[in-house]
Amino acid sequence: MTTSRAFPKGARLLKAHEFTAVLRKPDYNVSLGPTRFRAKLSSGDRPRLGVVVSKRGNAKAVRRNRLKRILREQFRTNAHALPAVDIVIQVFGKLDDSRLVKVTELGFQGLTQHYEHASE
Fold this sequence. Notes:
Blueprint: H1 16-24, E1 28-32, E2 35-41, E3 48-53, H2 61-78, E4 85-91, H3 97-119
Parallel strand pairs: 3-4
Antiparallel strand pairs: 1-2, 2-4
Helix pairs in contact: 2-3
């Protein structure tokens, strides 16, 4: 059986108030280079992702879309290990693809460890 590579609506933050709730009072807030990971416990049963990529350092829409695609892919591959939290990842500077992958992996590892220790 193959696993789905879809990114369903249930796995996304869609509305402005969902982003605002995470950005204003996050339980987890870490900056790694030109990225920032913020997360807040969710009432849902699975993690959800929101992505913000600024034009600073990424002026071309093609580049911003590629960064978002990479972030979504990293989320999909790590979602099984993440707790039920709402996550917003902000990219606010220039970043190459390989570094973004490394930073994202570190961010997800830190997030998982944070919520494992918080539940003990």
